[in-house]
Amino acid sequence: MRDAVRPAGEPDEADLVAYLDAGYILIDVMEAGRDVLTGSRHRHALGCSSLVSDGTWLWRLDFPHYVETHHVALPEAFIAHVRGLDYQMPALVTERFAPRYNETLPLVGWASAVPWQPTAAVLEPEQRPVADKAEFDAAMLIEQRNRPHGRWTRPRKPRRER
C-alpha cells in the first residue's frame, strides 16, 4: 500500500471515490479497523474488510478512504472502466455475475461460503449512507471535544463548581 501512495490524486478523484463508495457489498465483514498507514480512525473503519464490487472489479470497503486520503494509485484499466461508465455504478446482471462471485469467494478465503443464488435478475445500485471525509472529520472533532479528561480505565468524578 505504501508504494501506491502519491502526493496528489487523479483530477477526478472525488468522482472515483464516489464510485468506489457506491459498489455492491458482496461479503459484509463485522469488524473495525484503522488506517494501515497512519493508525488513525477513518470513515470506513467499521466493516473495513468487507468486499465490494461493481460486477467487474473487486475492492475492500475501506479502499475509498485510501484513494481520497493518501491518493493511492488506481489501475489505469479501472480508471478507464469508471470513466467509461461516467462514474455511475452499473446495474448488476446476476446471471453474468453469479459465476464470478462463486469463483471469487474461495480465492479470498471464503471457500466454505454458500454459492450466490440471487432472487432478482438485475440488481440496481442502491444509495448507501456513507459519510464523506469532511463529515467524518467534523464528527471526530465533536467527539474529541466531548470526551472526558483523564484516564479511561475508570469513571472520573465530576468536578465541583467554584
Give a written overview of the molecule.
- With 162 residues, the chain is an alpha+beta fold.
- It is built from 5 helices and 5 strands.
- It has helices spanning 13-21, 63-70, 76-84, 94-107, 133-146; strands spanning 24-27, 51-53, 58-60, 92-93, 122-123.
- It has a 3-stranded antiparallel β-sheet, with no helix packed on it. It has a two-stranded antiparallel sheet with strand order 4-5.
- A hairpin with a 4-residue loop joins strand 2 and strand 3.
- The longest helix has 14 residues, at 94-107.
- It is globular and about 70 Å long.
Annotate the secondary structure layout.
Layout (H helix, E strand, L loop, with lengths): L12 H9 L2 E4 L23 E3 L4 E3 L2 H8 L5 H9 L7 E2 H14 L14 E2 L9 H14 L16
Helix pairs in contact: 1-2
What overall geometry do the principal axes of the alpha carbons give?
globular
What is the count of helical runs? 5
The string of secondary-structure elements, in order, is HEEEHHEHEH
Round the Cα radius of gyration to an integer and report it: 19 Å
The percentage helix is: 25-40%
Compute the number of strand runs.
5
pLDDT < 50 runs, ≥5 residues: none
